[in-house]
Amino acid sequence: MKSLLTVVLLIVACPLVRAQAPPFERKEDVIYARKHGVALTLDVFAPKGKRNGAAVIAVVSGGWFSNHGDIDGAMRAGFGEEMLGRGYTIFAVVHGSQPKYSIPEAIDDVHQAIRFIRSHAADYQIDPNRIAITGASAGCHLSLMMGVTGDDGNADAKDKVAKTSCRVQAVAGFFPPTDFFNYGATGKSAEMLIKAGPFAPAFDFRERDRLTNNWLPVQEEKRKEILKQISPIYHVTPQTPPTLLIHGDKDFLVPLQQSQIMIEKLKENKVPCELVVHKGGSHGWAGITKDEALIADWFDKYLPKKD
Hints:
Layout: H1 2-12, E1 24-35, E2 38-47, E3 55-60, H2 69-77, H3 81-85, E4 89-94, H4 103-119, H5 121-124, E5 131-136, H6 138-149, H7 160-163, E6 170-174, H8 191-194, E7 206-208, E8 215-217, H9 220-229, E9 243-248, H10 256-268, E10 273-278, H11 292-302
Parallel strand pairs: 3-4, 3-5, 5-6, 6-9, 9-10
Antiparallel strand pairs: 1-2, 2-4, 7-8
Helix pairs in contact: 1-2
């Protein structure tokens, strides 16, 4: 399983660039937040040619593992060439990774990254109202969570970043989990992910006991509440941004059904959306970088450059 996970991470961690890509400038390890004494970072990739003023956040996450080294793996795979070539500035965001941090904490981290990027829009020469997000597998799950749970910021906060919106204007990505209660079929839980194997720590929800000061697993009812909170499908509204999903019909890890039911929910709410099914595709496939053009087209459509 570890070797399989490594392959998934290298193939789908996030869309970035390789040596033959259009000329770009890279700024590494920009600190967007700190928590528990640890710095959270992102890398910025800006095209050296003409910029279109829009930003793409690439969520560096596979199995809710996230680390800076995966950025270079995605670079070697060739992700990001299409978007850099069209003038997008890409922000590769590393979140607090499992096994140390669980999914709700990763969600908070990516929200914070969006606030940071928007609050520094002028520094990065981007339009704060033209920000998209993308990822694959866990990275796409987190991207969807940004789409459905973005907010306008805390107007009463003293910190400039905390006052800033974490909304995105478009979402696109590959094979995301969307409903942990109906995983592959109605009423079937995602036990293969949440109770065993390398993904389980991401679902290890704990809270501090006031008497002992120990961190203890949450009770079952609370656990169900959290699983619902982190399932994108339960948060869709008519205000959810336009969403594109790409999914293989032979995916062994995340069933195609997860994208299908998400698209159904988006359509119910009249949100512009589309599902592209890759025939014969598993959890990643040969030539997957070519599908980045579909994502770039989606962002071109829903992040139009303003005159």
